[in-house]
Specification:
It contains two helices and eight strands; from the N terminus they run E-E-E-E-E-H-E-E-E-H. The protein has helices spanning 51-68, 98-101, and strands at residues 5-11, 15-24, 27-37, 40-43, 46-49, 72-78, 82-85, 88-91. It is 21% helix and 49% strand. The chain is of the alpha+beta class.
Length: 104
């Protein structure tokens, strides 16, 4: 029976990681397959996420899945400034840090 994998991308304030999961004997198995540093950059006097680099890191983690031969059935994540546009996956825009928006 072929294993079904699911990928979660967690992007935090200082680092991000790709967690791959699957079910084994009725239990959820988690495996960290890729980790990368994260931080803010300054743009027009505001701290913002470097979304170009974050997108590259998301792709790097997906490539790691392929290298391991563990292709995810689906993936999801938090604080992900990307989305589907037609048939392509692309950046949706710059994201200010939460403190600059007045939301925390």
């Amino acid at each position: 029976m072929e294993m079904t994998y699911y990928l979660a991308v967690d992007i935090g304030a200082s680092s991000g990681r790709h967690m791959l999961s699957h079910l084994e004997d009725g239990k959820l198995v988690l495996e960290e397959i890729y980790r990368f540093p994260n931080g803010m950059t300054e743009k027009n006097g505001h701290k913002v996420w470097d979304v170009e680099r974050l997108f590259a890191e998301i792709l790097n983690g997906m490539k790691q899945c392929a290298r391991l031969g563990k292709i995810p059935h689906s993936m999801g994540g938090g604080l992900c400034p990307f989305g589907w546009a037609g048939k392509t996956y692309r950046r949706c825009g710059s994201l200010p840090r939460r403190q600059d928006t007045g939301h925390g």
